[in-house]
Write a structure and sequence with these properties.
Strand order of the largest sheet: 3-2-4-5
Oligomer: single chain
Order of helices and strands: HEHEEEHEE
Number of strands: 6
Structural class: alpha+beta
Helix content: 25-40%
Radius of gyration: 31 Å
Largest sheet: 4 strands, antiparallel
Length: 199
């Protein structure tokens, strides 16, 4: 014959069940509060890592453009376009249509004044005007008298997938300065034919 459960034991089981039910309800309530925060943190982390990746790629594009331009004593408009075509690939796998590239030759006179000798741009930004005073953009330590500096700039219009309504489109940019290995100037010419017509 089966033994009958006593009353107090039945009450303890009931209490156990109610405690388990209370714990399940508390965990569900905590999950409702914590889950949106965790999702937001994950999305924010994803956006920050994308922005850092783009920033690194933009820096690489600016440095590469300046190095390529400063290694030649003569450049043509076609060659500058080729440089732009090559370095814009540094932004890959991100879309390249938001990339702005600017190459500028800066002449420094005997008084240390820096002025634009020539400038070319791609991507919706205007090149600097010839003869414009551009010393404010250059570190004073680079302004050696009677020298030339190639300034390369890369900018990327970054549109966050999350938080766009708060931030809008952000512009990530990098500026890099280069001097020819032998200290010579880089001239921009109409072509390679002789006599050369150069700026």
């Amino acid at each position: 014959m089966a033994a009958r459960q006593s009353g107090p034991t039945r009450r303890r089981d009931g209490r156990r069940r109610s405690i388990i039910a209370d714990a399940s309800g508390t965990m569900a309530l905590e999950l409702v509060y914590i889950l949106p925060v965790l999702v937001l943190l994950w999305l924010a982390g994803t956006e920050v890592s994308r922005a850092i990746s783009i920033d690194n790629k933009v820096s690489q594009a600016a440095i590469s453009a300046g190095r390529l331009a400063s290694q030649s004593s003569v450049l043509t408009n076609e060659e500058i376009e080729n440089i732009f075509n090559v370095v814009v690939g540094a932004v890959d796998p991100h879309p390249v249509d938001g990339t702005i590239l600017i190459l500028t030759a800066i002449g420094v006179d005997e008084k240390g004044q820096a002025r634009v000798l020539w400038s070319r741009a791609r991507g919706g930004r205007t090149a600097y005007a010839k003869g414009a005073d551009i010393a404010a953009l250059v570190d004073r330590q680079l302004l050696s008298p009677n020298s030339q500096i190639i300034m390369s700039e890369a900018f990327y219009r970054y549109r966050p997938a999350v938080g766009y309504l708060l931030t809008g489109t952000l512009e990530i940019g990098e500026r890099s300065f280069h001097v020819a290995p032998d200290g010579s100037a880089t001239r921009l010419c109409a072509g390679r034919q002789m006599p050369r017509i150069c700026e």
